[in-house]
Amino acid sequence: MSAGDEVLKYYQNDYSDNIKQKGEPVTKADIESNKVILSQLLELNIPVVSEESSDDGSRLESEKVWIVDPLDGTRDFIQKTDEFSVMIALVKKNIPVIGIVYQPVFKRLYVSCKNLGAYVFEEGEWKRLRVSHTATLDKARAVMSKMHLEKKEKDFLKKLGINSVVQKGSTGLKIGEIAKGSADIYFTFTDKMKQWDTAAGFSIITEAGGKITNIYGSSLKYNTVRLHHDNGMLVTNGFLHSIFLKVKNNT
């Protein structure tokens, strides 16, 4: 949470002059949060791959690796929507086994560990995370991107017959909504998603009883040579996964 505290130091500043890297904004908060996280994780002698650090590929020789997004939802940070987070995951044998998503503004902390469940700390107490049991699309509640929702995704929501849609910033926060049963499905067709965008959420949604794959239903793998998810992402409460894929495959 110290990285989140570092992010909040910069939150009230003016970010009109941001550094751009490959079209994506980067703020001082991204960089400083990354420094705080690296200073702690590197002491554990496990390789770290982070959105804001160079990658020399040495992590590929390790069974375990930390995958970090020091500030997920930078555009939300800049626009002061409060919907940004710090995300950290421990990956073992290409699968996330620990997930941490921290929303600094509300001091909301999502944590998970393989076979031990997923939990959220908010409003002063810990709660066990469990997905909803919504099993039909007409009753489904979708949570979608606030900054990157594309026309083809809006059109597909209509095709699915989902009328209840909310939009949120950070990917980790969207997955958190499904993990605690406040939403049922999230999908994106983009090929720009990277492993640090999803690794922490993968562990959290899995331990909460949900499911996460690419848009075609194939498993997501981590600590691979290429850090992109080329075929989008689908996150559901589990009950809606096969239903979504059936509609997608018939399109």
Protein described:
The protein is α+β, with helices and mostly antiparallel strands and 251 residues long. The chain is built from 7 helices and 14 strands. Strand 8 and strand 9 form a beta hairpin. The protein is globular.
Helix content: 25-40%
Q: How much strand content do the residues show?
A: 25-35%
Find the CATH topology of the largest domain: Fructose-1,6-Bisphosphatase, Chain A, domain 1
Number of domains: 2
Q: Biggest sheet, in brief?
A: 7 strands, mixed
Summed over residues and divided by their number, the pLDDT gives a mean of 93
Basic shape: globular
Identify the CATH architecture of the largest domain.
2-Layer Sandwich
Measured between the Cα atoms of the first and last residue, the distance is 43 Å
* Global Rg: 17 Å
Order of helices and strands: HEEHEEHEEEEEEHEHEHEEH
Strands, total number: 14
pLDDT below 50 for ≥5 consecutive residues: which ranges?
A: none
What is the CATH domain class of the largest domain?
Alpha Beta
Strand sequence of the main sheet, in spatial order? 3-4-5-6-7-8-9
Record keyword descriptors for this entry.
single chain, 251 residues, alpha+beta, Fructose-1,6-Bisphosphatase, Chain A, domain 1, D-Maltodextrin-Binding Protein, domain 2, 2 domains, seven-stranded mixed beta sheet, three-stranded antiparallel beta sheet, 28% helix, globular
Topology (SSEs and partners):
Elements: H1 2-10, E1 19-21, E2 24-26, H2 28-41, E3 48-50, E4 64-72, H3 74-79, E5 85-92, E6 95-103, E7 108-113, E8 117-122, E9 125-128, E10 141-145, H4 151-160, E11 164-168, H5 171-179, E12 185-188, H6 195-207, E13 211-213, E14 233-236, H7 241-249
